[in-house]
Amino acid sequence: MKDLKDSEIRESVRERYGQIAKDGNTGCGCAPSGSCCGTSASLQTISSIRIGYSAEDVQSVPQGSDQGLGCGNPNAIAALRPGEIVLDLGSGAGFDSFLAAKQVGETGRVIGVDMTPEMVGKARDLAGTEGYSNVEFRLGEIENLPVADSSVDVIMSNCVINLSPDKRRVFREAFRVLRPGGRVAVSDVVATAPLPESLRSDLALYSSCVSGAATITDLEGMLHESGFQDIRIRSKDGSREFIREWAPGRNIEDYIVSAVIEAVKPAC
C-alpha cells in the first residue's frame, strides 16, 4: 500500500473529529467509527474512568465535553497550581481544559487549541453556557500554535500528538510557547513494536490514534532535539486491555500502548 500523505492524514483527522463533534462519540476511546457500541453519556463515562479519570472528574465538567476520546489523564500528572497558564493541545470539546480550569482557578488561564472547527465551536458554547471565564478555545494546528512565545506554564495533551504527521514541529512549537521552566504533561500512545504495513497504511486507523504512534526512543529524540530536559516517558501496559477494543481483531494491542510523557524547558 502507498505511504499516507500529510494532507491526507490531516483531512482524515479533521473529518473524523468534526463528525464526532456533531454526532457524539462511541464512548470507546479512540476506536474507529462504528467499531464500538453506542453514543450514550454513560458509555463515555465508563471509557473515561477506565483510562484514569474519577467519576467526580466526569461529573464536574460541562455535559457533552467528555467524548471518551483519550488514552490517559494528563491532569493527573500535570500537578497544576493556582495562577498557572495551561495550554491544551487538541482540546476537542474541552474536557481536559475544563478540568484544568478548576485547578488553576480564577487567577489562572487555560487555552485550548484544536484544528477542527466543530470541536472549537462546541467547546466555546459549553464554556459560555457554563460560565468558564478563565478558559478560551482557539482554532489552529498544533504544528503552528496560535500562541505567543514563552507565554504558558504547562502544556497538556491527551492522545493527540500521535495524530500529527510532523511531531518534531509539534515539540518545537511546544518549546517555543513554554516559559523557561515550563513543563509538558502528555498522555498519548506509543509504539512498542514496528507496525505492520497493513496498520501503518490504514487511514482510518491513523485518525483513530493507532498508525501514527512513534516509539519511545523516537519521541525522546524529538523532545531532546527541541531543547527539552528531564524527559520521562513511561508506558502503561495495562492500557492494552482497552486499546484492544479500538480495532477488534486487528491485534493493535501488540504494537501500541498508552504512555505518560513528561519534559521540562530549561529555566535559563
Structural features, described:
- By secondary structure, the protein is α/β, with parallel strands linked by helices.
- It has one domain (6-264): Vaccinia Virus protein VP39 (Rossmann fold).
- Helices cover 36% and strands 21% of the residues.
- The chain has helices spanning 6-23, 41-50, 55-60, 74-78, 95-104, 117-130, 167-177, 197-200, 203-206, 216-226, 240-243; strands spanning 85-89, 109-114, 135-139, 152-158, 178-191, 214-215, 229-236, 256-264.
- Helix 1 packs parallel to helix 6 (117-130) and helix 7 crosses helix 10.
SSE topology:
Elements: H1 6-23, H2 41-50, H3 55-60, H4 74-78, E1 85-89, H5 95-104, E2 109-114, H6 117-130, E3 135-139, E4 152-158, H7 167-177, E5 178-191, H8 197-200, H9 203-206, E6 214-215, H10 216-226, E7 229-236, H11 240-243, E8 256-264
Parallel strand pairs: 1-2, 1-4, 2-3, 4-5, 5-6
Antiparallel strand pairs: 5-8, 7-8
Quick description:
This protein is α/β, with parallel strands linked by helices and 268 residues long. The chain has one domain: 3-Layer(aba) Sandwich (Rossmann fold), CATH 3.40.50.
Summarize this structure as a short list of keywords or feature phrases.
11 helices; 8-stranded mixed β-sheet; Rossmann fold; alpha/beta
CATH architecture title: 3-Layer(aba) Sandwich
Return the average pLDDT rounded to an integer.
90
Helix fraction bin: 25-40%
Structural class: alpha/beta
Largest beta-sheet characterization: 8 strands, mixed
